[in-house]
Amino acid sequence: MPNIPSAVGPILSLRNVGKVFGGTVTALDDMSLDVHDGDFVSLLGPSGCGKSTALRLIAGLMRPTAGRIVWSDTGRTSTGGQDLGVVFQEPTLMPWATVEDNIWLPMRLAKISKSAVRKEIDEILDVVGLSGFENAYPRELSGGMKMRVSIARAMVTHPKLILMDEPFAALDEITRFKLNNDLLEMKARIGCTVIFVTHSVFESVFLSNRVVVMAARPGRVVQELHIDEPYPRREEFRTSPEYAAHCRAASDALHAAIMNTSAEAA
């Protein structure tokens, strides 16, 4: 089973975070969010609501204009080393490198030889279902397989937290459903916390124990939904009355957020 979210304090907190670009465009305003060990948190909202900006701030790729982002277990305000893995919307693989060399990249950057981490690479290839493809090149892989490589690269160091920015948005529905199923199994096997950006109500409900609904202009949290359904979640959950009810609630919350945004813009 995936980790059960901890009853103790959060591992990560966004405290009244704001981000302004160019002095005039407010991407986020007063955003607060706690993330606990074992959580699967989806950030759900319309385009332009700051979901990806929030992920980049957590990843340390930019600094907040206001507020703080704190890793609460240590009190530090920046991420460190192997605590964090990131999966972008595009796989961003090195086309000249094999699958195993793409997965090895974070260790290579840390000056760790491939031979020293051969066991870890082989294990993560098995976790993502790519055993036997270690010597293949990205051009030889399907879109779903490329994304598996990207996920493997993020997971190979067994980070405490994985950030995922709409990783399945460009995939067909069948592949997307399959990778949703597999992602929950991968999370269970390595043990981690996930923050996942998506536009899909259905995806957010299937994957998450918490769905954080955001409104734009400026980006902020307007509602949080708890998906109190047991893991593992498989196909029968997708056809259950409970799933349908959660999807309706998430859809209503998203619609309210969009209407609120539209009203403020008028």
Structure characteristics:
single chain; 6-stranded mixed beta sheet; 3-stranded antiparallel beta sheet
In a few lines, what is going on in this structure?
The protein has 266 residues and is α/β, with parallel strands linked by helices. It has eight helices and nine strands.
Explain this structure.
With 266 residues, this protein is α/β, with parallel strands linked by helices. It has a single domain, classed as Rossmann fold (3-Layer(aba) Sandwich), CATH 3.40.50.300. The chain is 36% helix and 22% strand. The chain is built from eight helices and nine strands. Strands 5-6-7-3-8-9 form a six-stranded mixed sheet, with helices on both faces. A three-stranded antiparallel sheet has the order 2-1-4, with helices on one face. Helix 2 packs parallel to helix 4 and helix 6 packs across helix 8.
Secondary structure: elements and pairs:
Layout: E1 12-21, E2 25-35, E3 40-44, H1 51-59, E4 66-70, E5 84-87, H2 99-109, H3 118-127, H4 143-155, E6 161-165, H5 173-190, E7 193-198, H6 201-207, E8 210-215, E9 220-226, H7 235-238, H8 241-265
Parallel strand pairs: 3-7, 3-8, 5-6, 6-7
Antiparallel strand pairs: 1-2, 1-4, 8-9
Helix pairs in contact: 2-4, 6-8
